[in-house]
Amino acid sequence: MTMNDHLFGLRLFLRVARKGSFSAAGREMNIPQPTVSRVISQLEKEVGAALLIRTTRAVSLTEAGSDFMARLEPILAALEEAEQAARGDGELRGILRVGLSSSLAIRAVVPRLPVFLQRHPELKVELLMDDQRQDLVTEGVDVALRFGSLPDSNALAKRIGSTPRVIAAAPSYLARAGAPRLPADLATHSVIVGPSIAGHVWSFRHEGTVFSVRVDGKLSVSVNEVSTVAAVAGLGIVSMSLAGCLKEIEDGSLVRILSEWDMGTIELNAVFAAGRAAKPSARAFADFLIEELDGPVLMAAR
Fold it and tell me: For domain 1-64, which architecture applies?
């Protein structure tokens, strides 16, 4: 295997590992599936270890393959940056994998993607949508957009901005159950428990006083966007970022409640895998979001 062939094999291995499929990786790179299989087998022979487990349904990493991938990604990222610097044209190429919640993708990122991709026509973007926090290394995420605090102090992060936390409910729910006048009233209301950090305990601040109330309801969901839909349907009171329900508040399908009580703000950060040099495209994407998302709902970092 020549040096060029070996480098191609390494890049192909990453695509197979991320896609979990020889055929999917082949389609993405315009290579027949038998060629993908042959190149990967040759790579495993060169490495001297089985990197992938093949089944009729999927392809997964062996323990050696997972370790190999974790060590390989920063090397290829650094190579990509070196190639871009050598070209001197500032053009971003390759594939950018972005991890984010479905709500953020739908409401903020996807509507702005055309501008970013027009600036970088040689770049492809993969959106990996999950309201739970992904493992950046094992899932091959180049940059993750995360609301809330960052417990992993080893991660490389860049602050994108912040958005107020609010609570809201549908007019139909308020007509049926009445509007809470104080945070304590929420204890007798039905709330929609979503995946946000608020959980079952909601905290408020008013004129220097902090008050927390335990809430509960008949519905729990694992996706923030579903929380908004459920609230519009009248299933209860929801707590989320203003960015996640602004459209519904503006069109009247949701009504803000207890707005004089401050629930604080939620930070949005771009997070890069710990120990990895951020890809140029990942850094450019974070800078683009700071530029594009600046406004009263999502206040950009400066």
Answer: Orthogonal Bundle (1.10)
Please answer whether residues 166 and 246 qualify as being in contact, where contact means their C-beta atoms are separated by less than 8 angstroms: no
Over residues 84-116, the pLDDT tens digits come to: 667 665 678 888 989 999 889 999 999 999 999
CATH of domain 162-266: 3.40.190.290
Distances (CA, A) of 292 to 28, 249, 279: 29, 22, 20
Global pTM?
A: 0.73
Contacts of residues 294-297 at CB distance under 8 Å and 24 or more positions apart, as own/partner, are 294/161, 297/163, 297/164, 297/242, 297/243, 297/246
Cite the beta strand spans of the chain per DSSP E: 52-54, 59-61, 94-100, 123-129, 143-147, 156-169, 190-193, 201-206, 209-214, 216-220, 237-241, 255-256, 265-272, 299-300
